[in-house]
Design brief:
11 strands; globular; binds (4S)-2,6-dioxohexahydropyrimidine-4-carboxylic acid; binds zinc ion; hydrolase; DHOdimr; EC 3.5.2.3; Dihydroorotase
């Protein structure tokens, strides 16, 4: 196959940041995707309707009219269910994001005990507002590579049981336990998958030395987990869809004694995913994963218009707008046309 033309895709999980960083990164997402679920973990986090509207306006002013940011509310222990409901009714918030406090970048204001947000979850269940979940426990006694699987056992199983009509997206899945949990769960549960968790296992973190640009959260896992996540992603199941988790940090913040978690994969995201689907001989499943399963789960219309990927080798540069992109220095076999 020399080219793929498919319905315009969406990114169901991205970090667009703010200020100067926003200006640098948004064009890469807007070039490929019609819409994106925008994560609210700014400093300070996006917890109010006014804050979300202002952030949305800043994104649109950089991205232009052909890209629609879908905003999320950052859940805290003190979340006000009425404010959530109002923001959803006004069309500001599409979803709310659960960060266990301390799990990742700018999650200090996150949730310390899931019971603190039970009233919010009840409201969300009632009004059809989606819950996006960073699925890792923060218990320091739990090995960092086990935090996703333990979260499923300790927290997520209970959420799905206690709020049976609540739609839940387990974000950026990294383990065979997560892939299995989502596959076996009711139709209210889905998952996003990043390019890095399809391409890399944890060896990539230590390839000839410490590799900060392969560091993200949830951290890369063993090969058996990567293979399970790949199988889920290319399976054609409507429960699995594209969410890059593109998470740019300044180069100095990555290449540091205490480097930040996050991989900037936005510039070549579609090319990266296409490579995986081709390797798995599943290019016929790519459009579903990239352009159909997400909107159907979110209850949003499919996009009009198409995007074309052409087979063409391109060298991924060492830096893009001063940031180190995923696949830097590698040759990738596809190119978004136009
Ligand atoms: O690697 C990550 N980076 N994982 C997250 O959960 C957050 C993100 C960020 O905002 O930097
Ligand atoms: Zn993320």
């Amino acid at each position: 196959m020399q080219s793929i033309t498919m319905r315009r895709p969406d990114d169901w999980h991205v970090h667009l940041r703010d200020g100067d960083m926003l200006e640098r990164v948004v064009p890469h997402t807007a070039r490929q995707f019609a819409r994106a679920i925008v994560m609210p973990n700014l400093a300070p986090p996006v917890t109010s309707i006014d804050g979300a509207v202002a952030y949305r306006d800043r994104i649109v002013s950089v991205a232009g009219p052909n890209f629609t940011p879908l905003m999320t509310a950052y859940l805290t222990d003190n979340v006000d269910a009425d404010e959530l409901g109002r923001g959803h009714a006004e069309g500001v918030w599409v979803a709310a994001k659960l960060y266990p406090a301390g799990a990742t970048t700018n999650s200090a204001s996150g949730v310390t005990d899931i019971r603190n947000i039970h009233p919010a979850l009840e409201r969300m269940e009632r009004i059809g507002m989606i819950l996006c979940v960073h699925g890792e426990v923060t218990d320091p006694a739990v090995d960092v590579f086990d935090r996703e699987a333990v979260f499923i056992d300790r927290i997520l199983t209970g959420i799905v049981r206690d709020f049976p009509a609540l739609k839940v997206v387990l974000e950026h899945i990294t383990t065979k336990q997560a892939a299995q949990f989502v596959a076996d769960a009711p139709a209210t549960v889905a998952a996003t998958i990043t390019p890095q968790h399809l391409h890399l296992n944890r060896n990539a973190l230590f390839q000839g030395g410490l590799r900060p640009h392969a560091y993200c959260l949830p951290v890369l896992k063993r090969e058996e987990h990567r293979l399970a996540v790949r199988k889920a992603g290319v399976s054609g199941s409507p429960k699995f869809f594209l969410g890059t988790d593109s998470a740019p940090h300044a180069r100095e913040a990555k290449e540091s004694a205490c480097g930040c978690a996050g991989i900037f994969n936005a510039p070549f995201a579609l090319e990266s995913y296409a490579t995986v689907f081709e390797e798995e001989k599943a290019l016929d499943k790519f459009e579903g994963f990239a352009s159909e399963h997400g909107p159907r789960f979110y209850g949003l219309p499919l996009n009009d218009g198409t995007i074309t990927l052409e087979r063409s080798d391109q060298l991924v540069p060492d830096t893009v707008d001063g940031l180190v992109p995923f696949h830097a220095g590698e040759t990738i076999g596809w190119r978004v046309a136009g």
